[in-house]
Amino acid sequence: MTAASSAAELPVRHRDAPAPGEPIGSHYHRCFGCGDDHRTGLHMHVSAGAGLSIDAKFTVTEDHQGAPGLAHGGLLTAAFDEALGSLAWLLRKPMVTGRLETEFVRPVPVGTTLYIRAAAEKVVGRRIYTRADGRIGDPSGPVAVRAAAIFVTVPIEHFVRYGRAEDVGAAVARPDIKETARTFEVNP
């Protein structure tokens, strides 16, 4: 690797990225994070923010418990993975999680809505560096969870090659062309 290829760059919001405030819908109806058809999923709502940020929220349900009455830490980590991964829609690059670190600042009770703001900070080669904060109750509430992640851009064929054949085939075969295109557009 040359010094030039390893230099950090500021990420650039793609010209076709959703406008600030525009909802970013589910990329796949059975996704645990954002899919409407996942019975116990997060059913996360995401919208494009200013610059290279997104805003996301989900409500912790009884299906998301670890300790009695509290969100499971792994589930909260999954929520941050989903929120940070949604930055792909602003960059218009398919990507996968390479590394994700989560810091738990305070407990998140069942019934709480967690508001997550995530941003892309820099790009080094195929790596995209991101950060997020999760706040309890409203976007200016107390911070409960922080996360930092490195995503790695991949060709869209990655998902077709490694995805379970019957799911990839079902996504491609869906009569809803809009969802099929969206499923394989950025990050299935």
Q: Tally the structural domains.
A: 1
Identify the CATH homologous superfamily. Hotdog Thioesterase
What fraction strand? Answer: 25-35%
Structural class: alpha+beta
Q: Got a strand count? A: 7
Q: How many helices in DSSP terms?
A: 5
Notes on the protein architecture:
- The chain has 5 helices and 7 strands.
- The chain has a 7-stranded antiparallel sheet.
- It is of the alpha+beta class.
- The protein has one domain (23-167): Roll (Thiol Ester Dehydrase, Chain A).
- A hairpin with a 2-residue loop joins β5 and β6.
- The protein has helices at residues 73-85, 88-91, 157-162, 165-173, 177-183; strands at 23-24, 45-48, 53-59, 95-104, 113-124, 127-136, 143-153.
Quick overview of this protein structure:
This protein has 5 helices and 7 strands; from the N terminus they run βββααββββααα. It is an alpha+beta fold and 188 residues long.
Defining traits:
188 residues, Thiol Ester Dehydrase, Chain A, alpha+beta, 5 helices, single chain, disordered C terminus
List the helices and strands and how they pair.
Blueprint: E1 23-24, E2 45-48, E3 53-59, H1 73-85, H2 88-91, E4 95-104, E5 113-124, E6 127-136, E7 143-153, H3 157-162, H4 165-173, H5 177-183
Antiparallel strand pairs: 1-2, 2-3, 3-5, 4-7, 5-6, 6-7
